[in-house]
Amino acid sequence: MTKRVAVVLAGCGVFDGSEIHEASAVLVQLSRDGAQAEIYAPNIPQMHVVDHVKGQPTPEHRNVLVESARIARGNIKDLATLDVKGLDALIIPGGFGVAKNLSTWATQGKNCSISEQVEAVLRAFHAAHKPIGLCCISPVLAAKIFPGCEVTVGHDKECEQWPYAKTAEAMKELGCRHINSQVSEVHVDHQNLLVTTSAFMCNAPIHHIHDGVGRMVQEVLRLA
């Protein structure tokens, strides 16, 4: 039977939405492994819009669902309509949209709040014992919601290769266990059915990012 996997997006673009290469890697691997992706996004305004050439906010206003539809080629649903009963797993790619539109991690760090819809979806899959795949910054959602869980965002010591390593320290302060890993590796928390990988938390060649995301998807499908 074909496995149906919910993929939740947070916009379109690394600095204010979902990281496009990560989202694409997820969708490609799901297709390669014969799974069906069901793509969702919340129908809410973005926190802000970033000019990706200048790396600076602009006065524009955009909608998370509308922008996510660019990645989904229009085949997308409002997150409010997601029903965990008909789905086998959940995957949330990274990108700053996770920290800006799905949560307030970008401005509040470990003291952030999670979107009510996003938290409800995560808790529903967790309660149903269905696997959850998270990459790049999105493991912070699990760290906030599931105390004591095991996740990885790469390394916990900041350096040129790992410029966002302070994220791991903040997650530890929330009570979760951070597992150091390489960019092409994943970590599986079997108790919570969480599969995480660092993706663009690491300065690495894009094919290495793709490899890690692909392995994350494969592990999620194996657990589903």
Report on the structure:
The longest helix has 18 residues, at 206-223. The strands form 3 sheets. Strands 5-2-1-6-7-11-10 form a 7-stranded mixed beta sheet. Strands 3-4 form a two-stranded antiparallel ribbon. It is globular and about 45 Å long. The chain contains 8 helices and 11 strands. Helices cover 33% and strands 17% of the residues. The model has no long low-confidence stretch (mean pLDDT 97). The chain has 224 residues and is α/β, with parallel strands linked by helices. Helix 1 crosses helix 8. The chain has one domain: Class I glutamine amidotransferase (GATase) domain (Rossmann fold, 3-Layer(aba) Sandwich), CATH 3.40.50.880.
Brief descriptors of the model:
224 residues, alpha/beta, Rossmann fold, 7-stranded mixed β-sheet, two-stranded antiparallel ribbon, 33% helix
Q: Helix and strand succession?
A: EHEEEHEEHHHEHEHEEEH
Structural class: alpha/beta
What is the fourth-level CATH superfamily? Class I glutamine amidotransferase (GATase) domain
Topology, number of strands: 11
Query: What's the N-to-C terminus distance?
Result: 11 Å
Strand residue content: 15-25%
Based on the coordinates given, report the CATH architecture: 3-Layer(aba) Sandwich
> Tell me about the biggest sheet?
7 strands, mixed
Oligomeric state of the chains in view = single chain
List the uncertain runs.
none
Mean of all residue-level pLDDT scores: 97
CATH class: Alpha Beta
CATH topology: Rossmann fold
Give the total of domains: 1
Instruction: Kindly provide the radius of gyration, computed on alpha-carbon positions and rounded to a whole number of angstroms.
Output: 16 Å
